[in-house]
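Researcher: I'd like a candidate sequence for this fold, 359 residues long. If you have to choose between options at a position, lean toward the conservative one.
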């Protein structure tokens, strides 16, 4: 059953499970977390060959694009599965920024041709708004935007100008890299000269398209956060089973059992919230803004908690650069303010359920 009145389905379909297996197999062979730490400082460890394999060979870049435009004609549910796996491996690819936010923006703006290029994996596009911009963000009209994620990897920047949305080649804007906490998702300042590019939507359509792109991005970011939390929990359980102290596994101590049990419950709840948001977006539910706000408020906190526990319960090794735990903590902290902070989404949630904040 599909459509706005459909019942929420939190289970994974067979097709989604097959997609997960394909993405996980690719990342295990090409982007294992243990290998990423050695090259994370090399321009964010971006691997064009890995992006091609994910975007083109598996077809992940076109999941949200209709078949008539050259995409896979799938939905946000399938894209969410991809983001879960990318989160599990903190993979440095522009999937969220290009294949979700930019793609949704272009589809909402009616720019099907460019969306088809993104679906084919030939082009990477990034919406020129700060990574912190959440649903409802109104782009500034200054020509300079700070904190744009993956701008250095983009072939096309989607720039909002007073008269509409423009697709501008990367060579026609100035991209100045910034030092980011999360080295796997680089940030930059983008300066638009305003003299080039192709207009893809008028001002009113552009505003609505940007809102749609950011809503989809925030909703599916919850799945990435879920993937981060899942890896941290599984890795922590594995380590505490193998690590011995006083001639017994440290994971057998009651206090650690309680901490990991609590974290497991949080991850289970985060999965339900993330799946609800993805399903609401996929079915076009009028409750999508509500589901997205709930997912972001909850999943951002769980991802950070799981990463903090992972670092702490690994002891001294968890504090080293060689162990990938720090990459997960940095991704979780960066994601916590990406596409709207928890406070932003709480305010949104309060407005949607008519529960105003205390005076």
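Model: Candidate sequence:
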């Amino acid at each position: 059953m599909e459509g706005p009145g459909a019942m929420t389905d939190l289970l994974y379909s067979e097709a989604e499970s097959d997609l997960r297996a394909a993405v996980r197999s690719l990342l295990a062979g090409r982007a294992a977390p243990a290998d990423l730490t050695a090259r994370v400082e090399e321009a964010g460890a971006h691997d064009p060959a890995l992006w091609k394999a994910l975007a083109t060979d598996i077809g992940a870049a076109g999941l949200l694009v209709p078949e008539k435009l050259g995409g896979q004609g799938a939905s946000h549910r399938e894209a969410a599965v991809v983001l879960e796996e990318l989160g599990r491996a903190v993979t440095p690819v522009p999937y969220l920024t290009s294949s979700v936010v930019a793609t949704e923006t272009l589809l909402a703006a009616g720019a099907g041709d460019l969306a088809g290029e993104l679906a084919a994996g030939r082009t990477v596009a990034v919406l020129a708004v700060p990574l912190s911009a959440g649903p409802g963000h109104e782009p500034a009209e200054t020509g300079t935007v700070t904190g744009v994620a993956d701008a250095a990897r983009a072939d096309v920047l989607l720039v909002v100008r007073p008269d509409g949305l423009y697709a501008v080649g990367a060579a026609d804007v100035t991209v100045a890299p910034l030092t980011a906490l999360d080295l796997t998702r680089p940030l930059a300042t983008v300066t638009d000269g305003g003299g080039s590019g192709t207009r893809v939507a008028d001002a009113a359509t552009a505003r609505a398209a940007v809102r749609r792109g950011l809503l989809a991005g925030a909703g599916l970011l919850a799945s990435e956060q879920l993937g981060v939390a899942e890896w941290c929990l599984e890795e922590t359980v594995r380590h505490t089973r193998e690590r011995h102290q006083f001639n017994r596994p440290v994971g057998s101590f009651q206090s650690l059992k309680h901490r990991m049990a609590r974290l497991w419950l949080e991850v289970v709840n985060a999965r339900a919230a993330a799946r609800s948001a993805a399903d609401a977006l996929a079915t076009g539910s009028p409750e999508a803004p509500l589901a997205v706000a709930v997912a972001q408020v909850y999943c951002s906190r769980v991802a950070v908690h799981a990463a903090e526990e992972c670092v702490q319960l690994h002891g001294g090794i968890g504090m080293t650069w060689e162990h990938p735990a720090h990459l997960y903590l940095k991704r979780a902290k960066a994601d916590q303010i990406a596409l709207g902070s928890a406070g932003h989404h709480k305010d949104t949630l309060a407005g949607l359920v008519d529960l105003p904040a205390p005076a």
